[in-house]
Design goal:
Structural class: mainly alpha
Low-confidence stretches: 1-6, 152-162, 321-330
Number of helices: 8
Mean pLDDT: 75
Strand content: under 5%
Radius of gyration: 22 Å
Largest sheet: none
Distance between the termini: 9 Å
Number of strands: 0
Length: about 325
């Protein structure tokens, strides 16, 4: 009798946790999709309506510093999330799969291998897209003395017709590669607190990128319809990634965690690439004090560590509450 009632109470708590997890992922899809789209469309409307200047040269140094600090803070948040939340989750899923004999035990550090594979995969895709842009004349070749490049230097399409459409497609494709894996990383989360942490990490830089893209496209002669299409594709890929991640998580629970281990490891590696090559490398080239950028990066790290402590205490509180409920039933 007592065991049955306690089991029923545990099932109720588990069901509630799953509902909260589902709600958190749905909210994340809206924030990374709809809210990002609104942030990107506002500059388009602002320039068209005359609320914002059509000239990029009028952007003040203070604005550049603020945006750089925001991006650096977001980089610290993503880096900490990768190493303290996502990588441990991959190892946890791997351990469960090994115990259930649903994943072969090779004796190798499988989680770290897949993370590095994700890093190298995104690096290779980036270089392929970069090469295509150079060969099609939409991006200048790298000069002597360095090979670094970022999406900030890709020219926004200014012509009308097939060439402009193709150029815009390549620009959006390069950005969507990262966002898709970000969505997968969020979709495979097993705890609602981890979903909120990753949402904060991804939104902190995606909203900035969306606003910058919208402003650049608004200041170019490209048609408004094409700009809206580009923005919709860019904003819609993250919710798609979240949905794919949720499907992979469910598939992993039903048929073993092999697919979940692979994709979660690849997603973690892709985000590490984003931090080092798409955020830190780009921000260090700006006329912003490096100490200030490093400080903002460190603040993002400290912020996520503090949230991690809060998550641990929250999970411990839930565990302490379950025996108390059991005693009440008795």
């Amino acid at each position: 009798r007592k065991s049955t009632e306690y089991t029923g109470q545990s099932i109720t708590i588990t069901d509630t946790s799953m509902e909260i997890l589902l709600v958190s992922k749905i909210v994340s899809m809206l924030c990374l999709g709809l809210v990002t789209w609104i942030v990107g469309v506002l500059p388009l409307l602002g320039v068209r309506m005359g609320w914002l200047s059509r000239s990029e040269t009028e952007q003040s140094h203070k604005t550049v510093v603020i945006f750089s600090c925001m991006m650096s803070f977001g980089g610290g948040v993503i880096l900490t999330s990768c190493l303290t939340h996502m990588l441990p989750d991959v190892n946890e899923v791997l351990q469960e799969a090994l115990e259930n004999n649903t994943f072969p035990d090779s004796g190798l550090p499988v989680a770290e291998i897949f993370v590095l594979a994700g890093f190298l995969m995104i690096y290779l895709l980036e270089e392929v897209v970069h090469l295509i842009l150079v060969l099609t004349g939409n991006l200048k070749p790298d000069g002597e003395g360095g090979h670094g490049h970022s999406h900030e230097h890709i020219e926004v399409p200014i012509e009308e017709g097939i060439q402009a459409t193709a150029r815009g497609f390549l620009v959006v494709l390069a950005l969507c590669i990262h966002d898709f894996f970000e969505g997968i990383a969020l979709g495979v989360c097993k705890r609602a607190t981890s979903v909120w942490f990753l949402l904060l990490a991804f939104a902190s830089h995606k909203w900035v990128i969306s606003g910058t893209l919208g402003l650049n496209w608004a200041r170019s002669p490209v048609k408004a319809v094409v700009s809206m299409l580009y923005m919709t594709v860019f904003c819609g890929i993250s919710p798609v990634g979240v949905a794919v991640g949720m499907a992979l998580k469910q598939s992993g629970e039903d048929h073993g965690g092999a697919a979940l281990i692979v994709f979660q490891g690849l997603a973690t590696g892709s985000l590490l690439y984003v931090v080092f090559f798409e955020i830190l490398e780009k921000e260090r080239k700006k006329a912003v004090p490096g100490v200030l950028q490093a400080l903002c990066l460190s603040l993002g790290y400290i912020f996520m560590v503090c949230l991690g402590l809060a998550e641990v205490k929250s999970d411990k509180g839930v565990e302490d509450t379950t025996p108390a409920m059991y005693n009440v039933v008795l």
